[in-house]
Amino acid sequence: MATKEITEEALTMAWKMIDTIFRQYQVPAKEQNALLTALTSVALEDLLQSKSLGFSKPLPPMTILTIEGPNVRTKTAEKTRLALKTRPTEADTEREIEWVEEIFDKYKLSEEERATLYTALPCLGLHALTEYVEWKQEPPFAELGESD
Questions:
Q1: How far is Cα 86 from Cα 83, in angstroms, rounded to an integer?
Q2: Is the pTM of this model over 0.70?
Q3: Within 10 A of 142 (CB to CB), how many other CB atoms are there?
Q4: Cα 80 vs. chain centroid, distance in angstroms?
Q5: Closest listed residue to residue 18, CA positions, set 91, 136, 118, 110
Q6: pLDDT tens, position by position, 13-51
Q7: Counting CB atoms within 10 angstroms of each CB, which of 14, 62, 84, 109 has the fewest?
Q8: CA distance 35 to 111
């Protein structure tokens, strides 16, 4: 059985999309990392509930995601209210969505830009969690790799 994973094409397109938006609005690294971690967490909760993926091993406590150059890395935060969890709760997800929307509102992002980040950031974030997650179904990011 072939291992299911996010395609290189989807990852390349996700990088282009977030790079364009973050550069246009000059979003600082701290907020980029908060959006990356929060939106990956929201997607993770949704994908766990739909049984599209599961954990092959638990996430370490206080795990966050950071954009470092052309890569996304997992990192252990010393203190944060925003960390990825192996078993996220509905309250965690609601709080993360509030944070995300506050940042989106701050930069006055369009609905299209918001939708783009809701797809592109989890694509990169979940790819960075490869050693922890196991896809049960094909990752839902194929459309990122398709060209018009």
A1: 10
A2: yes
A3: 12
A4: 17
A5: 118
A6: 999 999 999 999 999 999 999 999 999 999 999 999 999
A7: 62
A8: 16
Six-digit token string for 120: 């592109």
Q: Tell me whether residue 144 is in a domain.
A: no
The pLDDT score that the predictor gives to residue 129 is: 97
Q: Is residue 41 within 8 Å of residue 92, measured between CB atoms? A: yes
Structural tokens at position 124: 């990169």
Q: Whose CA is closest to 64, among 30, 23, 21? A: 30
The confidence band for 2, taking pLDDT boundaries of 50, 70 and 90, is low
CA distance 65 to 44: 13
Residue in the block written with tokens 């599209």: 52
Is residue 69 in some structural domain? yes
End-to-end alpha carbon distance in the chain: 31
Contact 74, 43 (CB under 8 A): no
Dihedral sign, CA of 73, 128, 11, 39? negative
Q: Check pLDDT > 50 for residue 133.
A: yes
Domain tally, the chain? 1
Structural domain includes residue 133: yes
Confirm if 59 and 130 have CB atoms less than 8 A apart: no
Q: Identify the domain containing residue 46 by its residue range.
A: 8-137
